[in-house]
Specification:
By secondary structure, the chain is of the alpha+beta class. It contains 7 helices and 12 strands.
Amino acid sequence: MIVYIALMFAYCIIDTYFRKGITMKKIALYGFNNLTKTCSFNIYDICYAKTEEERKDYLAYIDEQYNSTRLTKILTDVTKMIGAYVLNIAKQDYEPQGASVTILISEEPIDEKFLDDSCNVAKIENGVVTPRTIVGHLDKSHVTVHTYPEYHPNHEISTFRVDIDVSTCGRISPLKALDYLIGSFDSDIITIDYRVRGFTRGLDGKKFFIDHDINSIQNYIEPKTLDRYNRIDVNVYESNLFHTKMMLKNIDLENYMFTSDINSYDPKDQAEIYNLVHHEMTEIFNGRNIFNKEDES
């Protein structure tokens, strides 16, 4: 019994470290850690908008809600969370809708005496982004976001897609910000890809193709967040390639209505709306069209 308790205690300690993404072994390196860690984070938000006018209003609402200024705030928060420093920000809102933000980041702060005045850096004060032409050192690390609002041509479903890519070199890891990103958007469907590329060398010249423990992206997401989703993992360990998909378990229709109240619909219409939302989510989650008899006819 004592041995069993000791083993369970040891397991809990190891699991806690693993869950928090803490590396228990520190590697002494020769030169710069040039491993490239890239995390592609993709979410979909689904909405029921009954009329074409409502669908257009939904796109306008999303376009304003997630404009380039707000997206810049989200990405600068991500940069801080992963322990990096902002070097340069480029942001753009598009017509008729959509926005993009790109932030160049570095693992360490840059001394101003090394700066090149030919480049542009965004200075952020009180949430307002203004240009300041003092920074020129461009690190290989970056954070980008693009938005893609759209709606179905034949029925009442609208979708909003966000693509975020975080690519880092060195010790910093993009995995630390996953819970924050999931909470920053109405995340009905989530797809995350993570890959470690290249290698770095130890003091004896030995190559290290990864510098942290990982067997699933889901190890870096809080259990209370994971519990809300159905999940699929596909991992290619020998290539340091990790993939996970998540779809919200519970569909509360009230959260999917753009302007109308779900209680104003009779049970039959509510069931139809549920089927439309669930159908859309299932197709996106599985990455393929799923037809039923009504669709085929």
